[in-house]
Amino acid sequence: MLKCIVIGNLSVGKTSLILRYTKNEFAGQYIPTIGADFTTTPLKIDENYEMVDLNGDHKYILENQGLSYDEFTEINDQIDEETKIYLWDLAGQPFFRKIRNYYMSHAYCALTIFDLNKPPFEISSWINDLKTFSPNSDFFLVGNKSDLINTENPVFKEQIDALEKRHTSKVHLVSAKSAGGVRALFVEMKLKMMKRLAQSPL
Ligand SMILES: Nc1nc2c(ncn2[C@@H]2O[C@H](COP(=O)(O)OP(=O)(O)OP(=O)(O)O)[C@@H](O)[C@H]2O)c(=O)[nH]1
Ligand SMILES: [Mg+2]
Predict the structure, then answer these.
(1) Domains along the chain with CATH numbers
(2) Confidence of residue 54 (pLDDT cuts 50, 70, 90)
(3) In angstroms, what is the span from residue 2 Cα to ligand 1's centroid?
(4) In sequence order, which residues have a C-beta less than 8 Å from that of residue 37 and are 6 or more positions away?
(5) Residue 134 in contact with residue 164, Cβ under 8 Å?
(6) pTM of the prediction?
(7) Residue 173 phi, psi (nearest 5)
(8) Which band of pLDDT confidence, cut at 50, 70 and 90, is reported for residue 55?
(9) Higher model confidence: residue 56 or residue 20?
(10) What is the end-to-end Cα distance of the chain in Å, rounded?
(11) Is the Cβ atom of 162 under 6 angstroms away from ligand 1?
(12) Is ligand 1 within 6 A of the CB of residue 12?
């Protein structure tokens, strides 16, 4: 089972990001997730649609994952069309902590989401929970709602730099509303999962 969990405080946009990626939709109103929800997405990357449509960003994403285009094609071709990633959307409200912790185990990958409008970006407790319940999980740090801020602001850049250093991980800036960066994030996540699978099959 390729389980990917999507975690982060309430209202940071976990459900919205999944909806944007899987259905290319966005809903403005906030409907809190109750407990947990799940949806699936194929692991295999559609080269013509998902990759080519990234407006040149695919080069940068492949570079992040240390893959040449040929290496990508080789591992992507080995993946069965039927192989699915199970995306678990875990409710962020404190009330759901118990049920959430239960769903946090055995994750292969995690997207840790935070709201770019709400500094200081407190994600340490999520990373700690992840290390407790799914110590072998890979993770991505994701700042959402980039449509509402100026990403060129030096103070903002410093905060993001500090976060990247603290967790020795790149921060992905995305917006479920404008769709900016969302496809790139999920494609990079798939690449990371594929690479890991190719190195040590389940
Ligand atoms: N401006 C803006 N609003 C967003 C964005 N993503 C989500 N929102 C809004 O933020 C609110 C919360 O989004 P959700 O996706 O429901 O948040 P969640 O993280 O799933 O929340 P819980 O299920 O309670 O944990 C909604 O009103 C969304 O419309 C974004 O990229 N930009
Ligand atoms: Mg939700």
Answers:
(1) 2-199 (3.40.50.300)
(2) confident
(3) 25
(4) 15, 88, 89
(5) no
(6) 0.96
(7) -95, 120
(8) low
(9) 20
(10) 8
(11) no
(12) yes
